[in-house]
């Protein structure tokens, strides 16, 4: 279940469920107990850390069920006794089942698992004082932590830490996924993420505001090739950039477009053009000026190694006179941030553009700080998509792909090995190559992000990374990930 809901929608779901007589807290308690039973033996002791709200009630209900099933379970209420009706009842039930409520951290023992039921997704504002100290004590325990719904202290929408958060080995989230578990700091704090839908009837679920990004069968089917085809069926990508000393960026993007299946790939250099690519002589390399009006081009990928000289803005303006889809990255975005005329041309371009900024480039485009972009990555991506009437890929941990009308997806693939030079060039080439083969800008952006992230994961699984993972390795690995998917989709 990959749907994402606003928190107001989640609260409405809970209200509707209560009116229908569905006890979601009881279902959450059962889901937690089932997860523990599937991952830990009954010989292991469990500690339930319960806050004052319903998240604490979830932990206490699970603790009661686990005790009834043979586990030794203690509870700790570091912030005081529950203040919600259901949570108070859950505490009473735990005590009636023979559960022990510890008086302090000093009375805790050795545990196989700790349940983090401090705050959940309802936390508002920055944590202070006792709440921060409680999370620090929880993180100091030497046993694994299962976060309930969301690690306490992590903003479940934005993925930011406020200002401390529980570092969980696993997170069991309820009803639907939360974007903050997958973007910004989320993946560093959540560990392995599992979803318990609590069997809320689909008929009572609202229209989601976003989704997690996974390959769509219909998209994959459009990439399956008949036997009777030729290179002209699969487009021509022109990668435009490569100022003096930065020609490698063009090669990385062009190779990525080639390896993802583009029919023909051209590399356009604003600096000295290479005579050929010795690794992939299939690439056609020439002066960028020759490609601006080349009728063979069906998709432009602009920016890799472009530089920010005045001539770069002139070249971008010329490219925008072509009514072709295009991907903008790197220095093309930096030039765009300083040139209102180009910005207007992008926003009114007849073919939808894809912009792929990293946080610093996004900040320049929005005229704000990087910190503000990272404080709410979804809002930043949506603002850029609306301003430039474009598909925007805000890169980083949990890349956000937003459409002009506000729809967005959060990409769950990738690892820290992608924090290396050239990775953005490869993503640009992959997206452009998928567009050349007939995918829409949004389809190409979402599939391209998922593929490159999954490629990094696959390489790391074979000890090629995360340390030392290079951008060029991603291109080949992405091809290796995509082809089995197409075979299965066919």
Reported for the largest beta sheet, the result is:
11 strands, mixed
Radius of gyration: 25 Å
What is the number of beta strands?
A: 18
By secondary-structure content and strand pairing, the structural class works out as alpha/beta
Contiguous runs where pLDDT drops below 50 for at least 5 residues:
none
Shape: elongated
* Spatial gap, N to C terminus: 23 Å
Beta-strand content: 5-15%
Determine the fraction of residues in helical runs and give it as a percent range. Answer: 40-55%
Number of helical regions = 18
Whole-number average pLDDT? 96
**Which sequence of strands runs across the widest sheet?**
1-9-18-17-16-15-14-13-10-11-12
Q: Can you put this structure into words, describing what you see?
A:
It is a single chain. This protein has 490 residues and is an alpha/beta fold. 41% of the residues lie in helices and 15% in strands. It contains 18 helices and 18 strands. The protein has helices at 7-19, 24-39, 54-68, 85-96, 129-140, 186-190, 217-221, 247-259, 288-291, 310-320, 331-337, 340-347, 359-366, 370-375, 377-388, 423-436, 441-461, 471-489; strands spanning 3-4, 46-50, 73-76, 100-102, 113-117, 145-148, 170-174, 192-196, 210-212, 236-241, 264-269, 284-287, 299-302, 326-328, 353-355, 391-394, 400-402, 408-410. Helix 8 (247-259) packs across helix 16 (423-436). It starts with a strand and ends with a helix. The model has no long low-confidence stretch (mean pLDDT 96).
